[in-house]
Fold these 3 entries.
Entry 1:
Amino acid sequence: MNFWRNTEAAAKRAIRSKCKKPYFSGRVVYTFIPEMLGGTLLCQLPDGTTIQYPYAKIEHNDRGDSITCMKANIRPKAGETEWGRVRLWGGMMVENICQAFCAGLLRDKLRVIDNVVAHVHDEVIVEYKATVAKKQAEKLKSIMEEVPEYATGLPLKAEPVIMKRYGNH
């Protein structure tokens, strides 16, 4: 809960500053670029990935001051000219951080793993001959559990499973 609150507070401070000054929540940095897409809140992750919240502003509602931004995946209804807005709160922003950060970790691992045929969520599917499967599973575990420098302290755990066909334990 503290990270949620700190994250939301850092984002609000960034928007209120109306300048490019950085505001931190742990290893995450929020900045506000007023001249970008009607005022864009940027959330920079430890790996350098940036989450963008366009047309961000603070609005007063029944819950107090809330961050809102344009929600581009909700089109205006016929005859309307305004794009939908979404309320951002600490829990949602932390969820976005976790999803983007973990997707980046997976992309980094996929670049160095051999024989990848697919991936599903946080699972990497590789294909090897049965004669080398055990050795390759150990190598895969080692790669997946290697913590990048930008994620020092993150507990990564992998549990490779050898099977003849995906989904068939």
Entry 2:
Amino acid sequence: MRMMDRIDTKKAMVITDFDQELASSFKEITNRDAEELLVFNSYGALISQPYGCLMRNVILALYYEGVQDIYILAENAQQHDQDDLLEKMKEAGITEHTLKTLNYLDAVQHNVLNWLAGPSDVHEAMRKNKELITKHPLIPKTVTVRTFIVDRETGGYEEVY
């Protein structure tokens, strides 16, 4: 039996940076029960590479789990401070030389700290996530992608277009 033969209902995928206390908003936003959701947690809900591990998981879930709808949910205050991150890295033994070498090699988007900290504008990040998925050559055009920003304080949310 092929994996596709086992799909009885179409699932929705949620890519999020939420902890469990905000998971209750999934049902309200997606209008689906928990058993119909395939949830991927990603620090910052950011898809930074079109052929990275997260995108690979998205593509495989589309084909093997029957996912037709993708929801990307991020908190409104997800920005990480680069100076704080740099300090933590130095405390862990990462040297400036290592960071400069990675930047020189252009390993990730020209600047390692920018890549790790993520964008400062969460709205723009959600738009880029959506574009990255919808324009990916291995994503069927029939898949819908919606992005939302959730306010941790109020539980309210807004769709990003």
Entry 3:
Amino acid sequence: MPQLLLMLIIFMPIVCGVGILTLRPFGSSYFKPITAGATILTFMMVLYLGLMYPTAAITLSNLHPTFSLALQLDNMGILFTSLVSLLWVFTTFYTFGYMDHEKNHTRFYGFFIIALGVTLGIGFSANLFTLYMFYEALTFVTYPLVVHKGSKEALTAGKKYLIFSLFGAGLALTGMILLAPVLDNYFFAAQGKVLLGAVGNGYLLMVFLMMFIGFGVKAAIFPLHSWLLGAMIAPTPVSALLHAVAVVKSGIFALTRVTYYIFGYNVVKEINIIPYLSILIGVMIIVGSLLAVGEKNLKRRLAYSTIAQLGYIMMGLILLTENSIRGGLIHIVNHAFIKITLFFCIGTIIFMTGKTSLKEINGIGKRMPITMGCFTVSAFSLMGIPPLNGFISKSHLVIGALDANMILHAVLFIGGAFLTASYLLPIVIAAFLKQPEPEELKSAVDGESIPEAGDDTSSLEPPKVMLVPIVTLTVCSFILGLFPGVVLNLINQIITTIL
């Protein structure tokens, strides 16, 4: 039963997506119920499997010990797949409202639901080879979502996404090949698989850096991050998935598996990765934040923010203290909830008004009080203000840096909070405190003229199918901030096994 369920969770969304694409000539009335049903059922199965069979495992193909395809569930997989499947449900319903007036619905929803199955395959992978196969599949099934608009700009962004992803894949694969002589197999183990002394530390350091940077491309590791900015041409629900759930968090998940389940804590500590990666990741945090401050396009500003926030997660993982790892792992969850909410809010502004720039949204908060109120809460959370969930992440990261006697890293985390405020607060200030320009807006919904921005009596709130996910996700930020034990209990179990 658990083995069947493990396969069903992955392949049911893939089959549903292929079904949507196959039935495309027969109309599009079926794609919404199939998509909604598949995402909700998938989340329920993930939850049931994690609660009832937390160690489920199955081998799909065992032609060679090194290249076997196998699935398993452990605490790290439960954390990742629960997060992915839950946020995919919210994204699905938001998408129903946002994409109503877009073209090529069946193609979009087909690949949208296939991507869910592939992402869960990454989370359930029992070994590095299986993870790599699903990891690469994710590149190709998300490509049609990135280029959905079909414009020259979208195709250019898609090409860049493929080039960067394949380069990272090649680098990671090279590292895997070089690591093969040191391993019996690629299966994940809580204490890692690599043994010290089999080869020189310099060799292990080289291979680790190749794999970390290779898998890190999907996590927008600096300086291989620019694909993420180009991908902003995609519809907002895709941007939200790329930045909060599917692609970048799959990259972070792969980095976690490589660091702690292949190399292991003791080996990573012995080969002394901190001096090499902390500088790179520190630059990633600072540059991402500074570029966000100077960016006027709202979606691109959030894209730069994602680069910086992913740096927080990576830094937490490589500082190798209990609190830093805890902060990095919980920020995987907290950043996902925060960033998807921010993107949904900005997407709602674009959907309802067609406005995409900071200078165009003066006074918008008066006409979108719920949407911009949720944006404000999420912005405060990303800054690390209590009692929101972002504070839990940032506090553990700072304490973890101090535990490692990394004073500069602690200062970086604290300073990063001020940089976060410097690129998010201007949006809040423009929305609520600045006077709108006396110009006519065009509704992105039907193209009809709508009242001037100064008319406070006219609401621009989106349809409920879009607004409810935004409000619910914002409430989740409060819940995860007030009751962090919901996630920390699972994370503490992960840390106990890997340290």
